Amino acid sequence: TGDNVSPRRVLLKLSGEVFGGGRVGLDPKVVAGVAGQIGEAVESGVQVAVVVGGGNFFRGAELSQHGLDRARADYMGMLGTVMNALALQDFLEQSGVSTRVQTAITMQQVAEPYIPLRAIRHMERGRVVVFGAGSGMPFFSTDTVSAQRALETHCDELLVAKNGVDGVYTADPAVDPHAQLLSTLTYADALQRGLKVMDATAFALCQENDLGTRVFGMTEPGNVTRALRGETIGTLVTN
Ligand code: UDP
Fold first, then answer.
1. What residues are designated binding site for ATP?
2. In which residues is ATP bound (predicted)?
3. What is the number of domains present in the chain?
């Protein structure tokens, strides 16, 4: 068509909480719903990568409080994210969206290894890439991995889907009835006002590399598709 505007490419972070519907294990209805919404965005030409959390199975920091070695507990946490990645892949494929899982810990029978250039190629061909097993390194979080993968695969934006809140507020809305939703915010302001956007390592990566983050609530039906397509919902955090 002679149109050389490059397509929108985004990285969506889905926490383990999303997969479990707030409980331990998987809530297939919720995962199917999210997969359907991702499929709609892909159909309209958005290139999508997903980083999945694993808090619905194990969190290393919590396990280590029960006496497990922290690093080993973190590996258990990372393996949990792979189960979420496979569940998401399954529902995406069921809704007709071609999907590849890439893991930071190699498990050849189950997924491709993390190869950034190949991930980009997949997205260019309309495939969703789901990144599992975190960074493969203990003491990191999937928030941090989201920022890192978004940067390495040249995503335009990081999208953080939340359960319960629909963005960043001036104060904790559960505590302060006067808390207001912010539609835009700078990283510097967030730091100065002590507003929590994501964990500190992820935050620093985004700020230092000028990657914008949109935090949005996924309770409202269709919000995942809206965020993927670039609609202005939730809070956009930039430099
Ligand atoms: N994890 C890790 N390194 C990583 C990513 C994750 O060790 O690079 C482990 C860590 O134990 C973490 C667990 O995997 O608690 C699940 O990830 P996370 O807590 O980020 O998931 P979410 O809170 O998004 O569900």
1. 13-16, 55, 59, 163, 169, 172
2. 13-16, 55, 59, 163, 169, 172
3. 1
* The Cα angle at residue 38 between residues 34 and 44, in degrees rounded to 5: 150
- Could you report the predicted ipTM of this complex, rounded to two decimals? 0.98
> What is the model's pTM?
0.96
Number of CB atoms found within 10 A of residue 106's CB: 13
Query: By residue range, what is the domain housing residue 104?
Result: 9-238
Q: Given this model, what pLDDT does residue 1 score?
A: 52
- 17-52 in b/e burial notation, b at 16+ Cβ within 10 A? bbbbbeeeebbeebbbbbbbbbbbbbeeebbbbbbb
Chain centroid offset of residue 70 CA: 23
How far away, in angstroms, is 72 Cα from ligand 1 center? 12
In a domain, 78, yes or no: yes
Q: Is the pLDDT of residue 144 over 80?
A: yes
Residues making up the annotated binding site for UMP are: 54, 74, 135-142
From the number of C-beta atoms within 10 Å of its C-beta (0-12, 13-18, 19+), residue 96 rates as exposed
**CATH number, domain containing residue 148:** 3.40.1160.10
Q: How confident is the model at residue 143 (pLDDT cuts 50, 70, 90)?
A: very high
- Ligand 1, residue 139: give the atom nearest the CA: 7
3-class secondary structure, 34: helix
User: Is 203 a domain residue?
Assistant: yes
* Residue 164 CA from chain centroid, whole number: 16
